[in-house]
Design brief:
homodimer; 483 residues; alpha+beta; nine-stranded mixed β-sheet; 18% strand
C-alpha cells in the first residue's frame, strides 16, 4: 500500500466528534491546565518528592488483586491488540506471545484506574532499589469505564504525592501533606480554600463508644462522610434506619461530627470529653495522632486560615486508617473536595510481605480545571505562551524578521515569526486573537533608522526601540507588566 | 465488601514483575527523563507553540481511517470495559451505551499509536475555534501492540511539534523546525549532533529523471532511506534487483544520495547539475524549497556544525511531501535518528475538506532516554530534586527542624525533613544514597549559638551558618556550585 495515497476520498470523510467522558481542551484552557499541573509539580518537588511514571497498562491480576481476581467492582478498561492484516495472512506463523492478550482469551492487561495500585506494585517490585522513606509524586491520567450517560470522566489526570515508610513512618509526615496542599492552592490563586483534617481512629473509636457495633463502623463512617452533601437531618435519619441507632446515640454522633474549627479549640474540646469515648483506646490514639499532626502543620508555617479540623471528614469508601484530608473552595463548596487523601497502614500487602505504611494526597486535575473553567475562576487567558509576534510588514525583509526571532529565542523570550503573506492588519488581528503581549513591527523606514516599533497589545501603545535594545526592553516589560 | 480487609492474604501474594515492552524508570532515571521533556517543552514554547493533550482513546474508525476502516496494518490496542459484578447482577438493567464497546461487539475505541492522527482529528473537529497557522506541541505516550519478543516498546512517550496552515503554509516554517531541534539538543548536552535535511520532491524528481517509473519512486525512496543502516553496496543491489535499474542508473542514484555536507556546497552542486534532472519539474521545485529552508535556518542563527544537507534522508514509509529531517548523535550513530519529521501537504484530508498543510518534528523520548542511559550519556544523577535534607539530630527539637523545612520551601528551596527515629549516621547515609546536595544539622550546642551546621555532601565540607542566613547561604551555594 502506498502511504501517500489514502483510500478514503473527500466524499467519504470520517466523522469527527467529541466522545462523552473524554474531555479535551482548547489551547487557552490547556495552558491553564498546564499552569495548574506545573504548580502542583513544583510544590511536590519542593517537598522532596521524586517523579514516577508507570505504564498505562497493568496486568489484570494486579489491578483486580483487591477484589480477589476473578471479578471486579470497579469499571476497568481491558486492552487487547486489534486483529491485523498480518495476523489474517499468517495465522499461527508467530509463536503465541506470553504477554499477549486478546478478547477471545480474556484480557491480560488493563488500564490503571488510579495511581495507588501502580504505586503499590512499583514499590513492591523495586523495594530493594528504592530509598525509604520513599517520597514520590505521579501526575498521569487514569481511566474508568464509566457509562457515558453518567456524566463522569472516563479519562482524567490525577496528581498524587505519597510518602512510604519501610515498616514505619513518623506521624509528622502527615502534617507535611497539609503544608504541601496549602502551598499549591495559594500559588494557584483560585480563591480562599480550607484543608479539613480529621482522623479515622478518632471517629471509629467514638462510634464504638456510642454503641455502634464493630462490624458497622465502616458503614457509619460512610454515612457520616456525606454530612456536607446531604445535611444533618438526612445523616441522622440514615444512622437511625440503617444502623438502628437510638435517638440519643444519633444525637451524640451528629454533635460529634459537627465539631469543626481551629485545631486548638477542637483539640481542647476533644480532650475535655468525658464519658465512654475518653476510655476508648482507638479514640485516645486517634486524638494523640490528630494533635501531633496539627502541631506539625503549625510548625511548618501553614497560614491559619488555610486549614482546620472537621470531624465529619471520613473519606467514605477508602482504605485510610488514620489522618484524613479534604480540601474545599470556600466560595465554591459545590465543586466538592479538590484535594483528598490520608494515612494508610500498609500499602502493598497484596504484592509484598514488606510492610509499607504511607500517607498521601491526590488532586483530580481534569475535574478541578473543568469545574474552575465552568465557575469562571479560570478564565482561559491567552492562546499563546510566547509573548512576542515578529510581524512581517515587508516580505523582502524576511531575513531581518527571522534573525530577530532567533535573537529573542536565544535570550529566552518566546517569539513567533509571522511567515504567511498577509497584510499587517491581518497579522495584528492574528496577534490579538492568540493573545500575544507584544508585536514587533518594522519596515524600510525603521530599518533605515536602526530601530523597531514595539507595540504593546494590552495597552495599544507603540514605541520605537533601538535594534540592539530589543531583548532588554522586552524582558524588562515582561518583568514589570504595565497592566 | 469492606474495603479495609483485602481478601488476599500473605500466602497468596500477587506476583509483581516487569512487563516486556512497557518500560518504567527508577527515580534517578525518571528525573533525567523529566529533564529532557522539560527542555523539549521549553523550546517548543519558545517557538510559540501551544500545548495540546488528547485522550488516549480514539474511535477505531478514526485510527484506521487511512487503511480504509475494516482492517489495519499497524498494531493497535483496542480497549473495552471488563465485565463487572454489577453487570453480572443486573444484566440488561442499563441501556446499551452508544459509546460503549466490548470484545463481543468489536472494539469501538482504541489507543492512539501516534500523535499525528489525534492532531488531524482535533484540528478538523475544532478548526473554527483555532487560530491558523496553528502551532501546537504534544508530549504524550502512544501505544503499539508490538509482540513482546520484538524488543520494541509497547508504550512510549513522543514529543511532537507541528505548525498547520489553513490552505497554505510558508516554506520558511520548515526552517524553524531545524532551529528548534538545535536549541533542544544543545541544551540537553548529550554530545555533538547533526540535523540532516533533505527534500522528497528533489529526490523523487531525481529518481524519475534517472528512469525510475512513477509507481516505483516510493519504493526507491524506502530503499535509499536505508543507506546509513545497510551501506552503499546493499542499497545498490536492492535498487538493481527490486526495481530493475541498470548499473548506470544505480550508480547515478548512489552518487546522488551520497551528497551531503554544508548547505551552500550541496546547493551549489545541485544547481550546477546538468542532464535530465535539471529539466525535471519536481527536482527544480524541491531544490528551490531546500534552498529557501537552508537560507532560513542560517537566518535563525542555527550554529553551522549542528546541521547539513543529506540527500539520502527520505523518511521511508512516511507521508511527507517536501522537507524531511533526521537528527543523529555524531559519536553514537548506532542510536539512530533521535528527532525526525518533515513537511506534508494535507494533514486531515480524511476528516475534513479543509486543506491543512503542515510541517513538524517528533522526538521519541522514551527510546531516546533508554538509549542515552544504556550508552552512559545520561548517568542518572541524584534520586532527589530537593537539594536539602533537614536532619533531626535531637528529636526534642523536631519543632525547629519542621520550622526550618517550612522556611526553606517558602524561599523556593526544596527541602525534606528527616522525620524517622534514626541516628545521624543513618540519616546522612540516606542523604548520600538519595544524592542530596546539603544536609542541615543542629543540636543543643548549635541552637544555643543560634546557628546550624551546613554540610556540603559533594565536598564533605561542613561549616556553621547563622540561623537567619540559612536561606541566603544555601541559595548562593546552589547558584555557584563548588564542584
Amino acid at each position: 500500500m502506498n502511504d501517500m495515497t489514502p483510500i478514503a476520498t473527500k466524499c467519504s470523510l470520517v466523522e469527527v466528534r467529541p466522545t462523552s467522558g473524554l474531555p479535551e481542551f482548547l489551547p487557552n484552557e490547556q495552558i491553564d491546565f498546564n499552569f495548574c499541573t506545573d504548580v502542583i509539580r513544583k510544590h511536590y518537588e519542593l517537598a522532596g518528592a521524586v517523579p514516577l511514571q508507570t505504564p498505562a497498562f497493568e496486568r489484570v491480576e494486579v489491578l483486580t488483586a483487591k477484589e480477589g481476581g476473578d471479578s471486579v467492582d470497579r469499571q476497568i478498561y481491558g486492552v487487547a491488540r486489534l486483529p491485523t492484516r498480518r495476523d489474517a495472512k499468517a495465522e499461527g506463523a508467530e509463536e503465541p506471545d506470553e504477554d499477549d492478550s486478546s478478547p477471545e482469551t480474556g484480557f491480560k492487561h488493563a488500564l490503571r484506574f488510579d495511581l495507588t495500585v501502580p504505586l503499590a506494585r512499583y514499590t513492591a517490585q523495586n523495594a530493594e532499589r528504592l530509598t525509604f522513606p520513599f517520597r514520590r509524586y505521579q501526575i498521569q491520567p487514569v481511566w474508568r469505564g464509566e457509562r457515558s450517560q453518567s456524566g463522569r470522566y472516563r479519562e482524567f489526570v490525577q496528581a498524587d504525592i505519597d510518602v512510604l515508610g519501610d515498616g514505619e513512618l513518623d506521624i509528622l509526615t502527615d502534617a507535611e501533606m497539609v503544608a504541601i496542599t496549602s502551598g499549591i492552592f495559594r500559588e494557584m490563586k483560585i480563591g480562599a480554600f480550607v484543608i479539613r483534617l480529621s482522623n479515622r481512629k478518632l471517629l471509629e473509636g467514638f462510634l464504638s463508644s456510642c454503641g455502634v457495633p464493630p462490624g458497622k463502623t465502616a458503614e457509619a463512617m460512610r454515612i457520616v462522610d456525606k454530612l456536607d452533601k446531604v445535611g444533618m437531618a438526612k445523616v441522622a435519619a440514615e444512622l437511625a434506619t440503617r444502623l438502628g441507632l437510638a435517638a440519643s446515640q444519633t444525637e451524640l454522633v451528629i454533635r460529634f461530627v459537627s465539631l469543626r474549627g481551629r485545631s486548638d479549640d477542637v483539640v481542647e474540646r476533644l480532650k475535655a470529653m468525658a464519658g465512654p469515648a475518653a476510655a476508648n483506646e482507638q479514640f485516645v490514639r486517634g486524638l494523640q495522632e490528630l494533635e501531633a499532626v496539627a502541631a506539625g502543620v503549625k510548625l511548618l508555617g501553614v497560614p491559619e486560615q488555610d486549614w482546620g479540623l472537621d470531624l465529619s471528614v471520613a473519606r467514605g469508601l477508602s482504605y485510610y486508617t488514620g489522618t484524613v484530608y479534604e480540601t474545599t473552595l470556600v466560595d465554591h463548596p459545590g465543586i466538592g473536595s479538590i484535594c483528598s487523601g490520608g494515612r494508610y497502614d500498609n500499602l502493598a500487602s497484596l504484592f509484598t510481605a514488606r510492610k509499607l505504611p504511607g500517607v498521601g494526597i491526590s488532586i483530580g486535575v481534569t475535574r478541578l480545571i473543568s469545574r474552575l473553567i465552568e465557575a469562571g475562576i479560570l478564565k482561559g487567558a491567552a492562546a499563546t505562551l510566547a509573548p512576542v509576534l515578529v510581524t512581517s510588514l515587508d516580505r523582502r525583509a524576511m531575513d531581518r524578521y527571522l534573525a530577530m526571532t532567533g535573537r529573542l529565542r536565544n535570550a529566552g523570550i518566546g517569539a513567533e515569526p509571522f511567515l504567511e503573506n498577509q497584510r499587517l492588519g491581518q497579522q495584528l488581528r492574528y496577534a490579538s486573537r492568540k493573545g500575544f503581549r507584544f508585536a514587533l513591527i518594522a519596515g524600510e523606514t525603521e530599518f533605515a533608522q536602526g530601530r523597531w516599533m514595539l507595540k504593546d497589545l494590552v495597552t495599544g501603545e507603540q514605541s520605537p526601540v533601538a535594534d540592539a535594545d530589543i531583548e532588554i526592553s522586552i524582558a524588562a516589560s515582561l518583568k514589570h507588566p504595565s497592566d
